């Protein structure tokens, strides 16, 4: 299906079609938890259990091959040690790709249609707190959506109180009591912020700046899933850091932290 065709289809019917395709190709009728892998988090899938099926994202209706280096283009079905079925989405469509907000949240809606009750969102992001060195994982406690858009259409009024489940955040802190928490501000990107925009984000209460997650979390709540978000600070945000930002730095920080954060995430998922 082309993206033009996809955008003409009802988004929930499109998600149903993708979920049916996934059920058929993986042989798993219902998944329990969905995991979206952002920059730096791709190693986690290997630690949460045994991969029982791997699909290429571009073969699943409405999904796209990833546009960003450092992201994997697969959708995997993983059986966890605890007997849960995890749907691991390695290909996220970012808002800045210009494919529309429906495309951005298609993975989340597909996960809900596939039966997932829990949505785990991971990302790489910029940090506003100088104490958070690149490679620091931070729990998302709330978000500020600075994209000026929503994945919801029409008079769809959805409460976003405790969007990032305090229950699951507490489970995460049982695994690692030193985990910090912060408010994630989603910018549209794909450019990084100016130092002035970073100061603005700080003053309105943000601790983390990124280009994903908030729109997905909203769609996840709307679809009835319990949402958990965890960021990997891969760089200090512009102007906080004395050096200019580079995507290479982001990838390096992800690689250096990969083993540690993958284990952390696997342990959190093991407790869900
Ligand atoms: I990785 O500093 C990563 N993603 N907006 N700002 C924004 N997104 C990011 C950043 C950052 N680092």
Class by alpha and beta content = alpha/beta
Poorly predicted parts: none
Per DSSP, the total helix count is 9
Q: What's the mean pLDDT score?
A: 92
Write the CATH fold name: Rossmann fold
**What shape does the CA trace take?**
globular
Strand order of the largest sheet: 5-8-7-6-9
Hey, roughly how much beta strand do the residues contain?
Answer: 15-25%
- Hetero groups bound? 8-iodo-guanine
Q: How would you spell out the order of helices and strands?
A: HHEHEEEHHEEHEHEHEH
Give a description of the structure:
By secondary structure, this protein is of the alpha/beta class. It has one domain: Rossmann fold (3-Layer(aba) Sandwich). The chain is 34% helix and 24% strand. The chain contains 9 helices and 9 strands. A 5-stranded mixed beta barrel has the order 5-8-7-6-9. Strand 6, helix 6 (166-175) and strand 7 (180-186) form a beta-alpha-beta unit. Helix 2 crosses helix 5 (106-113) and helix 6 packs across helix 9. The longest helix is centred in the C-terminal third of the chain and has 25 residues, at 247-271. It is globular and about 50 Å long. The model has no long low-confidence stretch (mean pLDDT 92). The structure holds 8-iodo-guanine. 8-iodo-guanine is lined by residues 39, 124-126, 187, 189, 192-193, 209-211, 234-235, 237, 245, 250.
């Amino acid at each position: 299906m082309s993206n033009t065709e996809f955008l003409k289809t009802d988004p929930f019917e499109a998600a149903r079609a993708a979920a049916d395709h996934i059920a058929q190709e993986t042989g798993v009728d219902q998944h329990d938890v969905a995991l979206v892998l952002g920059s730096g988090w791709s190693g986690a899938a290997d630690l949460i259990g045994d991969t029982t099926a791997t699909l290429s994202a571009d073969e699943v209706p409405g999904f796209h091959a990833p546009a960003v280096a450092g992201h994997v283009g697969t959708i995997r079905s993983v059986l966890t040690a605890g007997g849960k079925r995890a749907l691991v989405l390695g290909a996220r469509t970012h808002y800045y790709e210009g494919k529309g907000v429906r495309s951005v949240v298609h993975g989340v809606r597909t996960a809900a249609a596939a039966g997932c009750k829990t949505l785990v969102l991971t990302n790489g992001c910029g940090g506003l707190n100088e104490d958070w060195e690149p490679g620091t994982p931070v729990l998302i406690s709330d978000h500020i959506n600075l994209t000026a858009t929503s994945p919801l259409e029409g008079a769809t009024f959805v409460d976003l109180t405790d969007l990032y489940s305090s229950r699951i955040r507490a489970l995460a802190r049982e695994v690692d009591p030193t985990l910090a928490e912060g408010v994630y501000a989603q910018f549209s990107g794909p450019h990084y912020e100016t130092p002035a925009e970073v100061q603005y984000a700080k003053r309105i209460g943000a601790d983390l700046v990124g280009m994903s997650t908030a729109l997905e979390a909203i769609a996840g709540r709307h679809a009835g899933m319990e949402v958990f978000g965890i960021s990997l600070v891969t760089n200090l945000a512009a102007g906080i850091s004395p050096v200019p930002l580079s995507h290479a730095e982001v990838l390096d920080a992800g690689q250096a932290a990969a083993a540690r954060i993958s284990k952390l995430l696997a342990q959190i998922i093991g407790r869900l």
